[in-house]
Amino acid sequence: MAKPITGKTHVGERREKRPNGDIYVYERITAYDEKNRKTYTLSQRLKGKIKAGTQEIVPTRPKKRNGERGGIDTTRQHTGLTDILEWVGKVSGIDDDVRASFSEGDAEKMLSIARYWIGSGGNTLPRLESWQVMHPLPYREAITEDVYGKLFKDVGRNEEGVQSYFSARAARLGESAVVAFDSTTISTYSENQSEARRGFNKDGNGLNTIKLLTLYAVQACEPIAFSKQPGNIPDVISIENTLTQLKCLSLEKPLIVTDNGYYSQKNMMEFALRNMKFLTLADPTIVWVRETIDELRTTIAGMASTCPFDPTICGATVRRMHQFSRMRRRSRNGTVAGEKETISRRLYVHVYYSPDNEAKKELAFRRDLLELKAHVEAGYAEFTESVQKKIDKYLTCSRKRRGGRLKVGFNDEAIAEAMKYFGYFALVSNQTMDTFTALENYRLREKIEELFAVQKGRLDGARPRTWYPDNLRGRQFAQFISLGYHCFLTKKIKEVQARLRKKEPEKSKSLSKLEKKLDTWLSQRSLAQILDWFDCIETTKVKTVMAEYRWSTESVARDKLFLEYLGMD
Q1: Residue 435's pLDDT is what?
Q2: Which residues pair with 340 in a beta bridge?
Q3: What is the mean predicted confidence (pLDDT) over 166-193?
Q4: Within 378-468, where are the H helices?
Q5: Distance CA 567, CA 88 (A)
Q6: Please, where in the chain does CATH 3.90.350.10 lie?
Q7: Phi, psi at residue 340, to the nearest 5°?
Q8: What are phi and psi for residue 417, nearest 5 degrees?
Q9: Phi/psi at 426 (nearest 5 deg)?
Q10: To pair with 281 at 20 to 30 A between CA atoms, which of 3, 60, 343, 561?
Q11: What is the DSSP string of 193-229?
């Protein structure tokens, strides 16, 4: 029979050993949460410490009471940065979505850690406890290594809360969202991470990797979901689970944008059969893509094909019926399982030409062939399979007589055929779309690469820094929340800059001058530098028996204008 729940609290003791050998002794009061079936900490108080080499507890010095300080209660904290982040969490809905998906304690801890990462520029978590002393965060108690270690494990196992948060973020996008899908790799030396395997390492450091897959709303400029996979899973076979996840998120008619790492006949067929809109970059070396390029060459050469927002690009679109084939898994409608089935689907192929890109590719191609020719003439015997194919295709090797000198030339016909398609690239979609709207949507997809750079460089995401897979997922989820803060604030700052550059005749001369000054200041600083600038603002609170007083560091007119245009009170 289970032990009855009394609702009483338990007073226990926790000991924490520091690097110098001292042991800090804490008195901890815990209670049992019947709903979540977990024990949680109500309060924690430092009782004293056991100095290295001794056995006795040295009690801490008692705090002075209000009466001993003349009845004054005073605090001073850095609030400029944290006020901005608190505003971001409220306006973006991130804080509400986190609190609705997790218990109050876990939500407050995750929001605190997320704000710490973005506010400190990606400092490691052991520094959080001292940072929060002077920076007010949602979780008021100290976030020690034990606290965030347990948090990451609990959140990593709470898949219901994680998926609930993803769904809440997706619900804010509305109908016909454009969603980019891409991956990056996280390198690790760890042997405890079962998902760390040898695969394509995008950082190029030769370590085992864990693959991080992310869905990013390109128009809203914010991440909506992520997942992790073993590092040896190729990008091209990662799309099927993502399509299922999109259904789970209940996004209405999303357009999925991918690069050529996810292009394959199988993936296009998966999109078509699931009635999901897609836009993907196709490799111009594919036969049917080259046929489409040849078909549109004359059209693209006309002035009417010039891109309105980028004159260096020309483009045109053609519709074609494309044949997909697959093996039937089940017998249905007269088709037997295991038989080959052909399916026709309508595709739209958008072909683009860039003279600048053509010149760059041709120059790189010529240099590559000259280098290959030099290696062959020097007698290099071993080449990789891909390099050997290039040699066989573009170079000609001969000897005048037996044992004579090797003569290496160029296969001009094959080279001319390859160069014929330089400067061209193609986007394929199953959704009717204007030629340059498709290009614009694809270019917005590139923002996801900036997202990965931010997560690795500014949110301490370049290494797992945890022992176990569940803890890593919890840690990545906290980084994902911080990434949401970063993206929302970056978008708002760009909106401020657009407003500053908008010419309005009714503006006074002094306001125009101040706006120009603010625009110059914002253009010269990154988000981290802007937040660091406002971190100097301090708020002092003094509470006496008679009254309560509060004041903050003064701000110059430019800073006040920035906060006003940002939307903060």
Answers
A1: 92
A2: 327
A3: 83
A4: 385-394, 412-419, 435-445, 447-457
A5: 10
A6: 160-329+337-354+424-465
A7: -80, 130
A8: -65, -40
A9: -135, 140
A10: 343
A11: -TT-BSS--TT-S--EEEEEEEEEETTTTEEEEEEEE
CATH architecture classification, 160-329+337-354+424-465: Alpha-Beta Complex (3.90)
pLDDT at residue 112 is higher than 90: yes
Backbone phi, psi, residue 463, to 5°: -135, 150
Angstrom distance (rounded) from CA 147 to CA 151: 6
Stretch (H or E) spanning 25:
strand 23-33
3-state secondary structure 272-298: HHCCCEEEEEECCCCHHHHHHHHHHHH
For 523, the enclosing helix (H) or strand (E) is helix 509-523
- pLDDT tier at 338, thresholds 50, 70, 90: low
Q: Can you tell me the distance from the alpha carbon of 194 to that of 199, in angstroms, rounded to the nearest whole number?
A: 14
Task: Give the phi and the psi of residue 224 in degrees, each rounded to 5.
Answer: -120, -20
Q: How far is CA 493 from the centre of its chain?
A: 19
Report residue 191: phi and psi, to 5°. Answer: -105, -5
153: tokens are: 């494990």
**Which of helix, strand or coil describes residue 437?**
helix
- Helix 80-92 / helix 104-120 crossing angle, nearest 10 deg: 130
- Given a cut of 50, whether residue 162 has pLDDT beyond it is yes
DSSP for 30-84, written as a single string: EEEETTTTEEEEEEEEEEEEE-TT--S-EEPPPPPPGGGGTS-EEEEEE-HHHHH
Has residue 333 got a pLDDT over 80? Answer: no
d(CA 121, CA 105): 24
Both tokens assigned to 508: 């006074």
Give the dihedral of Cα atoms 565, 566, 568, 569; nearest 10 deg: 0
State the Cα–Cα distance between residues 525 and 434, nearest whole angstrom: 36
Please state, in angstroms and as integers, the Cα–Cα distance from residue 109 to each residue in 92, 112, 415, 478, following that order.
18, 5, 60, 9
Which residue is it, tokens 């679109």?
317
Reported as half-sphere exposure (CB side, CA atoms, 13 A), residue 434 has a value of 7
